[in-house]
Amino acid sequence: MARYTGPVCKLCRREGEKLFLKGQRCFTPKCSIDRRAYAPGQHGQNRRGGRGRSDRVSDYARQLRAKQKARRVYGILERQFRRYYAMSIKKRGLTGLNLLQTLEMRLDNVVFRLGYADSRAQARQMVSHGHFMVNGRRTNVPSVLLRAEDVIELREGSRARPFYKELAQFSEQRTCAMWLQRDLDKLSGRVLRQPERGEIDGNLNEQLIVEYYSR
């Protein structure tokens, strides 16, 4: 499956804010936003803060940026993101909230929210390598959508690896989402319910995303 393999710091610079795609590195002076707070590319420094037409941002541009930001935060390509939007339309309730809840229920995101990974990219790699089981079955598909009462746990064969021997100590320093239940002794977690809007990234504007796909 195709995926973005370029430098993720360029994505943060394009959006003009930290998306925390590199975990703890984003909190250090090495973060590219702190060193080069302008868009990447030859004309990056002229895209923001200049005079004339570049100051006027159209509705389409704001909608596009909101959609791109959400895609990049969760590490999803356009085709799959559009499929999630189509699924959200068919559900009851607000389409934008349904979309964000669907993204949050992905297996790689749940592993990240449990505190077992430093970033979603790391969580995706851990799942892709088959280190986690869902309801007792090994899975290597990061895009699996979980439901309430699903149980995620580290595979027994992975516990002997040096990285996973220290995983409990690493995860203890990280918070666990309120809609999840974590057991550090067993290196497992349980989905209690779907997240509420206040428990999802507040920098994401789901209304603009809905407007983008409703054009």
Can you walk me through this structure?
The chain has three domains: 1-51, Ribosomal protein S4/S9, N-terminal domain (Ribosomal Protein S4 Delta 41, Chain A, domain 1); 57-104 and 201-215, Ribosomal protein S4/S9, N-terminal domain (Ribosomal Protein S4 Delta 41, Chain A, domain 1), CATH 1.10.1050.10; 106-191, Structural Genomics Hypothetical 15.5 Kd Protein In mrcA-pckA Intergenic Region, Chain A (Roll), CATH 3.10.290. The longest helix is centred in the N-terminal third of the chain and has 16 residues, at 59-74. The model is unreliable at 49-54 (pLDDT under 50). Helix content is 41%, strand content 8%. It starts with 8 loop residues before the first helix and ends with a helix. It has 215 residues and is α+β, with helices and mostly antiparallel strands. A five-stranded antiparallel beta sheet has the order 2-1-3-5-4, with helices on one face.
